[in-house]
Amino acid sequence: MEDTPKIRQLRSYLNLKARITASDERLFFGTFMCIDKHKNIILAQTEEFRG
């Protein structure tokens, strides 16, 4: 099965630094690892900050 364009785009983000803003205004800085089956973003070596 061939990857879709969206899957290819997600793969291009692997191991890149990411900044995520949560709905409660917390900031997460870490390395993008994957998205789980519930569409949660998984980061490694992450730091959390209050906005």
TrEMBL record:
It holds the Pfam family LSM. Residues 9-50 form the Sm domain. GO terms for cellular component: protein-containing complex. It comes from the Eukaryota. PANTHER family: N-ALPHA-ACETYLTRANSFERASE 38, NATC AUXILIARY SUBUNIT, SMALL NUCLEAR RIBONUCLEOPROTEIN-ASSOCIATED PROTEIN B AND N. This is 18378_t:CDS:1. It comes from Acaulospora morrowiae. The lineage of its organism: Eukaryota, Fungi, Fungi incertae sedis, Mucoromycota, Glomeromycotina.
